[in-house]
Amino acid sequence: MTPILRTWTFWIHTHLREECRVHLEATKLPELRAQPGNSRAAAVFRELEDGTTEVVVMSVWDSMASIEAFTGKAPLTPTIDPQDRPKLFDHEPQVRHYPMRTLDDVPADLLREISP
């Protein structure tokens, strides 16, 4: 099977960065990591000069079949909890999938755990 890097990008106002980090660490990342076929999940933050922060949530899956078992029939549609939606400044309309030959194809620093 070909591992798949799954990414989704969204933007928040920078003053929400810590709240977002805590929320991801406490809920979303553990949820992803617990899914069958998921081997890693992490998020990275990049502050922009316009008062917003770009957030990329990444996960590595053993196959598209594992992703589809998690997402259902819409693997390209991001799932956004209704209570989180108002906090997003903007978001990509679709999730991206990148086939990898091995996990070594992903730079280690991109998939490191979020550090407080």
- Give the SSE order as H and E letters: EHEEHEE
Q: Compute the gyration radius: what is it?
A: 14 Å
Shape: globular
Number of domains: 1
Helix tally equals: 2
The CA-CA distance between the termini, in Å, is 34 Å
If classified by CATH, what would the architecture be?
2-Layer Sandwich
Percent range for β-strand residues: 25-35%
Largest sheet properties: 5 strands, antiparallel
Class by alpha and beta content: alpha+beta
Strand tally is 5
Uncertain ranges: none
Description:
The structure is a single chain. With 116 residues, the protein is an alpha+beta fold. It has one domain: Alpha-Beta Plaits (2-Layer Sandwich), CATH 3.30.70. The chain has 2 helices and 5 strands, in the order E-H-E-E-H-E-E. The chain has helices spanning 17-33, 64-71; strands spanning 4-13, 38-47, 52-61, 88-91, 96-99. Strands 1, 2, 3, 4 and 5 form a 5-stranded antiparallel beta sheet that branches. It is globular. The model has no long low-confidence stretch (mean pLDDT 87).
